[in-house]
Amino acid sequence: PPVGSMLNLDDFERMAKEILSEQGWAYYSSAGDDCVTLRANRTSFSRVWFRPRVLRGASGKPGIDTSTTLLENSARIESSLPIYISPAAMAKLGHPEGEVNLTKAARSAGIVQGVSANASVSLDEIVAARETREQPLIYQLYINKDRRASEEILRKVEQDGFKAVMLTVDAPVMGKRELDMRAKGEIVSSPASPDSGGSASTSTSGRGVAGAISGYIDPTISWADIDWYRRHCKLPLILKGVQSVEDVQLAVQHGIEAVILSNHGGRSLDYSPPPLDVLISLRQHAPHLFNQIEVWLDGGVRRGTDVIKALCLGASAVGLGRPFLYAQSGFGQPGAERAVEIMRDEIERCMRFLGVGSLSELGPELVEVLPRVFT
Ligand code: FNR
């Protein structure tokens, strides 16, 4: 079907399920244990309802301004939308150009791409696909048991003009993703992954794709490693995978530039809380923290309304993982571009319905939060 017939992000998921290999679908869609957190990431958004305002004129304004500045106190990244591409590994399982599709689509859409440590193309290929050095890329780091390998990568991403680093902290071990472990498929390759010594091709045999590319990750990292990071890299640091109010507080104390409330798309610990629930707790119990650190969020975001709900509650940016992998599967760059177009339309529509003309007008008064749901 033509890419224009995709009307929402779930259309891409259905399409991807049809065309992906057994291994590709299993790796992309799988999540920890019984996938309770995976489902809750999605259903948590039904806790938040809008309180639209009418007769505010915004619905008739020709231009709704969806642009924003990320890492406002450090990198100052301009983005045309408050969404970004979450770093997710192995885009080549869906399309031969892999993550390069996302780099080009991010450029044409004016949004940020998070580049996975386990991307299926090399960093050099990503960098070569940028149109200019100014195009905002953020590198996602897994700290290597061999610290020198990580130090080398940090030097490289700094030289290559990356704008910041996301350090993923919610995957000290791999979640037990049984669909991935059962899927048949032999060889995976992650030239970006330090595991592979630069050209990793490795058999999955029962470990799943995730198990095959993650052996180098240090499960013992701690807050002390933040000092190690600062010694080796000048780029702003974003902690990805924060799941409690207490850890946001600690991130502030450690001078971290931003946190991403995330549970790795449900792929790590099952029964870890949906990021939207953590955001709501933060707003209820420690709203002052929003002035001290930028709060981003990912997990289960599939609609423009999801994005606007998170922004109303204090998030600065919202990431999408699987939707971009699915959208580039089969369609390549135009698929990823279409996914952004769909989100742009839905975000603008939602803003017009709420009666706001720019993101800075969003706030908690525009939503009502219901008690936690469990279905
Ligand atoms: C991921 N994610 C991820 N995160 C990360 O820090 N490094 C990585 O290499 C990967 N790889 C990865 C692969 C796949 C197939 C998926 C689906 C996810 C997690 C990702 O950045 C993000 O947190 C979630 O995908 C967000 O949830 P949604 O948008 O997929 O619901």
TrEMBL record:
It is found in: Mitochondrion intermembrane space. GO terms for biological process: lactate metabolic process. It comes from the Eukaryota. One of its GO terms (molecular function) is metal ion binding. Keywords: Flavoprotein, FMN, Heme, Iron, Metal-binding, Mitochondrion, Oxidoreductase. The keyword Ubl conjugation does not apply. This is L-lactate dehydrogenase (cytochrome). The chain holds residues 146 to 520 of 554 of the full protein.
